[in-house]
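Each letter names a residue; the fold follows as tokens. Both lines appear below:
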Amino acid sequence: MKIHQIYTHNQLRNFNYIIEIDSKNAIVIDPWDAVEIGKELDDRRLTLKAIINTHEHWDHTQGNKSLVEKYGCEVWAHANGEGKIPCLTKTLSADELIPLDGDNNLLVLDTPGHTYAHLCFVLLEGEAAKGVFTGDTLFNAGVGRCDGGGDPETLYHTI
């Protein structure tokens, strides 16, 4: 398994992630630019199995439609994202494990506050936490704003 961090070069300074499950398949987290993501996938000769959206905001979902059209992949997100997340095909639940490869999994965390459709994902190697994808719940020097459908008190308890 390999993880590729892609800086979006947008005004919000987002990152997208490609998780290379094996030498042929990948999962993408929060695609901003479908063209850039598609180029990375094609350069690495990867098939996109699924898109995971941490939440419904456009800067985390705007690449969904084009990537689904190109790769025929699924889109996974929080149940509260139904009707808000483009091309959503599967809802994820707290404590669900998403198998990656071998002994690697993503553990789904329900993390409301920034929005009520927010999920974070802990990368597990066996039972050991090796990383986390936090979307807009947690940043290097702060947390996500709550004025787009979230609640500061809920975010405080989530953190």
